[in-house]
Amino acid sequence: MSQPSFIRGPTPLAPYCTLAVGGTADYLATVQDAAEVLDALEWAHAAGVDMTILGGGSNCLVADAGLRGLVLQYSEGSRRILQQGQSDCLVRIGAGHDWDALVAWAVAEGLCGIECLSGIPGRVGAAPMQNIGAYGQALAGVLEAVSVVDLGSGRFERIEAGDLGLSYRNSHLKTQWRGRFLVTDVELRLRRGEPAPARYGQLEEALAAHGGTADLRSIREQVLALRRRKSMVYDPEDANHRSAGSFFLNPRIDDDDISGLEARLEALGVSPESLPRYPDGDRWKVPAAWLIEKAGFEKGLVRGPVGLSTNHSLALINRGEAKATDLVALAREIHQGVRERLGVALWPEPIFLGFEQSAAELLEGT
Ligand code: NAP
Question: Rounded to the nearest whole angstrom, what is the distance from the C-alpha of residue 316 to the centroid of ligand 1?
Fold first, then answer.
């Protein structure tokens, strides 16, 4: 089979990723519909090359060596209402649709359920991968199903949300099914009526400070304002913009480890009572950003071409001319520093692509 015209040869990936690092993909295809997906799969199978899916590039770290084989980006981003009810609305969205543009549409239509997810960068197709969540809401609350193509067989399938293994910033698509499916559409069931009351301290305070109204528009505005203050809205004018948002997951810690952490904090002269913790099943969720700062890594830290955002200690940034290896070195320094000083292991949220070692090996190595 000859190479379809929409499959390009060697293409630098840094411009496709918000961290703006990473080498070249052997081939890159931006596919628009099912027919192009199938052509791309047929060509890749015949040519014997690997395939990697790229969304909006806002949650990945690409190696300096780049990616071998074909990088597929699905760009179809239509929006279609499947069911319009009195109390809810079922909508199907193409994976290439910008996530925040979808939230803006839902808010304008008076549809509730994703307003707190305003300002999250990336595309709709990436949202189920890590069950995006913020300010007390998560995709799992509204996700009905995803449509996918099995990259091995070329079969199109619809997977119900209940079968996706959605959990805190995780799903089967990110773990045991990683690399197996290309998400083509997402179905969300959004609710009409009043938005649920904010259950998240920072958002409640921001709403109260702005007149106490908690309609959909106010919630979206306040979430965007909170995120902007932390440089968590993608804005090329912001010096912190070359990042992947939160670089580390917030750890979940059991009672024994909380006691160990409290003892280590005390030894460092930090009051254990000041440790923020939120109940999460039989564990505690602890903010990674707080641990990073207590371990001595302040906002605005600089390590040559990389550093920490001046507005959020959880965002590693490329200060302009960084390589992926520079970011890995800083991530390793923070991972090891937090573990040595506080006994907690922090693991990265972005997906590492094209590295010979796993993210865990890279962070644990010396
Ligand atoms: P933050 O608000 O400083 O919160 C840090 C940690 O504390 C998070 O684990 C958060 O849980 C938890 N937390 C804070 N208040 C809570 C409450 N009232 N009840 C339960 N847990 C609480 O975090 P941030 O870094 O500035 O981020 C703001 C929000 O955006 C957070 O919800 C964060 O998870 C989210 N975010 C999501 C993504 C993503 O989906 N990829 C990326 C970046 C940030 P939760 O994480 O459960 O909220």
Answer: 17
